[in-house]
Amino acid sequence: MIRETLASLTAEENLRTLPEIAPEGIYIEHEGKRYLNLSSNDYLGIACRDMHREFMHEIDESDAFLLSNPSSRLITGNSPEYTRLEQTLSDLYGGKAALVLGCGYMANSGILPAITEKGDLILADKLVHASLIDGLQLCKAEWQRFNHNDMDHLERLLVRHRGHYRNVWIVTESIFSMDGDCAPLATLQALKTKYDLKLYVDEAHAFGVCGPGGRGLAAATGTDCDILVATLGKAIASQGAFVITDGEIREFLVNRLRTLIFSTALPPISLRWSDYVIRRLPQMEPWREHLNLLSHRLTGSPSSTHIIPLMAGENHRAIEMSKKFREAGFWVMPIRYPTVPQGKARVRVSLNAALNTGAIVKFKEVWNSIG
Fold first, then answer.
1. 39, part of any domain
2. DSSP secondary structure, 296-340, as one string
3. Run of H or E residues at 350
4. Buried-most residue among 58, 125, 173, 175 (CB within 10 A)?
5. C-alpha span between 355 and 298 (Å, rounded)
6. Are 212 and 102 found together in one domain?
7. Whole-structure pTM value
8. What is the per-residue DSSP string for 29-89?
9. Which residues are the active-site residues?
10. CATH number, domain containing residue 27
11. What is the rounded distance in angstroms from the CA atom of residue 131 to the CA atom of residue 169?
12. Range of the domain at 352
């Protein structure tokens, strides 16, 4: 079965490999060649700046323990750095409770199975991340998916199921990872109020990048999330993830969230680095403005985000486009099924604030020449 599957993936031009990459600021090196990196999730360009050096100057030589944490948080792994980071996140989000996890996948695959049960209903956007889909499949609650950003379809489902379930959860991303478009959070907020819903928003691609102080799209739109999840491994250039919720739900998750309970804690140095960056997020507004400028320059649209899909359709076309971009010195990767639906392969561009407009102008010229 394994051999046949690999042969089938090869024939479909859908076989994945792990390229060895060496980062060099805004560039990467691969097989002896250097490329401008347009595939990074380091949206603020933090890894390209001097922040790491400044941070390391603050680390005392006696802090060797910072490099490891071989236990779960509930045993001996709940280091003081967790408390400090969670307090920083709570302060950032106006006093709401914060809980730090090992990664975004652990958050999204674990939270919904923990907080829902039989008698609940989950309605999730068709294009939510694979980690959320895996979480849905672990749930005892019933779940359905509504057409992407289709609020009419969602409301029809709400009317159909009204009164039949104890709790109804709406699940969405705020900025979608593969299409780069935004959820209509203002409309979701109105539906939440109208139907007494609970709202779960994944801000992985918005946290740090948009909203007041970098708090994300929910903060920008005044959306009241019962569960807000974001990652520390994208715009913050660290590792881990966090949940913003109320104190009661946080306490419940500490006792029921399997991806927290049965996982090794993060090393203190990563927690301290995350805290260092997040405390500086409000001062990074010029970087966020520059990132918006780059996006608008590339697409010509004032509503575009830093994630820009260049649609190819079929796998071979996406691979061909990616190859031509690499030949021109740009590293952008083909995105294929099952990451995106069949027939909707694409090259995914993700911009970062360390890039300059000249590089984007050149990339657009290459993009136009490829067609």
1. yes
2. HHHHS-TT--SEEEEEEESHHHHHHHHHHHHHTTEE-EEE-TTTS
3. strand 345-350
4. 173
5. 12
6. yes
7. 0.94
8. EETTEEEEE-B-S-TT-GGGSSHHHHHHHTS-TT-GGGG---SBIIIII--HHHHHHHHHH
9. 41, 129, 173, 177, 202, 205, 234
10. 3.90.1150.10
11. 17
12. 2-49+284-370
Structure tokens at 367: 């993009």
Q: Is the pLDDT of residue 93 over 80?
A: yes
Query: What's the CA gap between 206 and 107, in Å, rounded?
Result: 16
Output the CA torsion sign for 203, 209, 213, 219. Answer: negative
Contact between residue 309 and residue 346 where contact means Cβ atoms under 8 Å apart: yes
Tokens standing for residue 112 = 């919904």
pLDDT digits (tens, 9 = 90+) for 181-209: 999 999 999 999 999 999 999 999 999 99
**Same-domain check for residues 270 and 292:** no
Q: Are residues 16 and 68 in the same domain?
A: no
